Amino acid sequence: MPLVPPEQQPLQVALGELSEILADRLSTELAARSERATDASHHHPGVPDAVARPLTTQDVSRVLQVCHHHRIAVIPYGAGSGVEGGVVAIAGGICLDLQGMNRVLEVHTDDGDCRVQAGVRRKQLNAHLLDTHTGLHFPVDPGADATLGGMAATRASGTEAVGYGTMREHVLGLTAVMADGRVIHTGTRARKSAAGYDLTHLLVGSEGTLAVITEVALRLAPIPAAMSAAVCPFPTINAAVAFVQSIIRAGLHPARCELLDEVQMDAVNRYADLRYDVQPTLFLEFHGATDTVAAAAEAAGQIAADLQGGPFRWATEGRERDRLWQARHDGYYACLALRPGCAGYVTDVCVPVSQLVTCIERTRVDLAKSELIAPLFGHVGDGNFHVVILFDPENSEELAEARQLGERIIDHALALGGTCTGEHGIGAGKIEALRREFGTAVDVMGDIKAALDPHGILNPGKVLAPRA
User: Fold this and answer.
1) Residues of the chain with CATH 3.30.70.2740
2) Into which CATH architecture does domain 339-426 fall?
3) Rg (CA), the chain
4) For the residues of 264-300, what is the DSSP string, one character each?
5) How high is the pLDDT of residue 5?
6) Checking DSSP bridges between strand 281-288 and strand 221-222, what pairing results, if any?
7) Percent of the chain whose predicted confidence (pLDDT) is above 90
8) Quick one: CA torsion of 80, 130, 156, 204, rounded to 10 degrees?
9) Pairing of strands 343-350, 376-379
10) CB 390 within 8 A of CB 383
11) pLDDT at 370 > cutoff 60
12) Cβ neighbour number for residue 379 with a 10 Å cutoff
């Protein structure tokens, strides 16, 4: 590296060096920077100083070498679909937009795995698997069409986690670039290993603070012979959760199991022009052999009837099922439509399923005391639920109230043996909550961060508070 003349600023020198590496794939235009200044959250935008668009792992390595040398912040960016401010450039720096790294590199049909660049999107991978007649699919579905690198970085899950697991269970290995530009490969295609430290799962969920993920090796799942989806209303949330606990204990193994409260159901009806009952409702799906799915559906119907639930509205044809689940995936935007011009303070927590009713009841007591609209929905099969608290972004008192409600929800979850986030991650929004959850273990996380990123250039201000 050339010496930096004292009259030149490190950022300008770094931008000059990056321009030589990336040419027209480096932009300092305000429009490009502003477009990548925020995610889908309520967090205020943070505009990066430049946007770099690498196409290869080597590009990423060279960018990080420059930024490490000049101590310039680097913020990995995928689809921008997160809700905890994970891509906001709090300290300026370089937005590393990985969307151009969008090639499916390998598919091993017999072994049920694949390797993709970090910018490949979830729907893109599944379309490729379908078009190439593999009989496989990638089942982790967070709702948004996120990039797979971003999903690995945030340890995403979603609607099918109860049946298939989360990104943690599906990532076999990674190619990642460390803060100083070193390229490492973690994991193998083997289904298990006892070799060394588990660097793969150290980086999965690290939200771009320990390394930049550039390639992901993924476990795939067979496309089931039969799928049957259903919508089923219940008189109370307690009855809906009791139904879920009953079908799981009965070994019916739903692939998806989603709860929407009556406020969320009203929002969905209005947004998508639907006619569902405005009461607590479960969205379910069973996967498997044709006779197994039919038997599970019949047994589920009987259990629901015993709890005064129903009637079931079943959908087995693909388009019907897609329309049903689109209503669920549109939940966030349906919430925002309840109060035009508002912002959504989004939070999620996860508790043991046996404590879910208690956590939701305590949460709803708090929400009932507030004048803010706050629909509740979630992945009830694994104890994870979300609340979208609608507030006027120009009203500081409403934002303060939304934050207070969010903190109360986290307190309820932690008191019941749960976690401050089941799938959204920590980002910029839950740093203090992480400390409440883990205490001094957060200091050990800080030690790891300091060892791998001594200059603190990787996604600063996320997950951990900066050390003094």
Assistant:
1) 339-426
2) 2-Layer Sandwich (3.30)
3) 23
4) HHHHHHHHHT----SS-EEEEEEEESHHHHHHHHHHH
5) 53
6) unpaired
7) 86
8) -100
9) unpaired
10) no
11) yes
12) 23
Contacts of 215 by beta carbon, 8 Å cutoff, 6+ apart: 57, 105, 115, 116, 117, 118, 174, 175
Per-residue tokens: 190: 């083997």
* Euclidean distance between CA atoms 228 and 285, whole angstroms: 5
Host H or E run for residue 136: strand 136-137
Q: pLDDT tier at 288 (50, 70, 90 boundaries)?
A: very high
**Does residue 223 register a pLDDT over 90?**
yes
Can you say how many angstroms the Cα of residue 461 is from the centroid of all Cα atoms in its chain? Answer: 18
Per-residue pLDDT, 3? 52
Q: Pick the closest to residue 303 from 323, 322, 284, 275 (CA basis).
A: 284
CATH of domain 226-325: 3.30.70.3450
Crossing angle of helices 290-306/237-249, nearest 10°?
140
**Can you give the pLDDT at residue 8?**
55
Q: Which two tokens stand for residue 354?
A: 């046996």
- Tell me which CATH code domain 104-222 carries: 3.30.465.10
User: Where in the chain are all domains bearing CATH 3.30.465.10?
Assistant: 104-222
pLDDT band at 7 (very low <50, low <70, confident <90, very high): very low
pLDDT digits (tens, 9 = 90+) for 154-197: 999 988 999 999 999 999 999 999 999 999 999 999 999 999 99
CATH 3.30.70.3450 domain locations along the chain: 226-325
CATH number of the 10-97 domain: 3.30.43.10
Return the ∠ at Cα 168 (arms to 175 and 154), rounded to 5°. Answer: 75
Burial call 92-130: b when 16+ CB within 10 Å, e when fewer: bbbbbbbbebbebeebeeeebbbbbbbbbbbebbbebbe
> What is the β-pairing status of strands 343-350 and 384-391?
antiparallel
Domain with CATH 3.30.43.10 in the chain: 10-97
First-last CA distance in the chain? 29
Residue pLDDT, tens place only, 111-125? 999 999 999 999 999
